[in-house]
Structures are given as structure tokens and as C-alpha cells.
Design brief:
Number of strands: 3
Structural class: alpha+beta
Helix content: 25-40%
Number of domains: 1
Order of helices and strands: EEEH
Amino acid sequence: MNETEKISEVYANALTITNTFFDFSLKFMKENIIEQNGEQKKELNDVALVRMSPQMAKALYTLLQNNVQKYEKTYGEIPVYVK
């Protein structure tokens, strides 16, 4: 990639993962809280869909695991809220 090409940057705070025998699909979303008629509602907007081979998914898993361990060693445990 040369200096004139740019990569789009996106923010996501929600994720779903599905897989088939052939690939893994990671659907990144942005969750927003919306006030409507005095009530709060959650709204999910799709940000990006990333598909990858099982081999790449396993490599990503390993890289994320290593980087999370390094992060927590430096900054402390990351709290997780999984639904």
C-alpha cells in the first residue's frame, strides 16, 4: 500500500460470529442507545462484515489472545460482559 491509499477506520462495540465448514464471518456493529417517547431503546447498525478461512480465524484468535494477555499484564484485567 502506498502513502496515497487510505484504509477506512470504523468503530464497533458489538459483534456476532458465525461459521460454516469453509469460513468464519465476523459481523461488526455499533450499538446505540436511543431515547424514544421517554423510553430507551438499543439500536444496532452494521459497520462491517469480515469473512475469513478457518486457518485465518485461528491465527486471529491466537494473536488476539496474546495481545489481550500483554494488555492485561500492563493495565490490569479487562472486565467482560457477554450476553
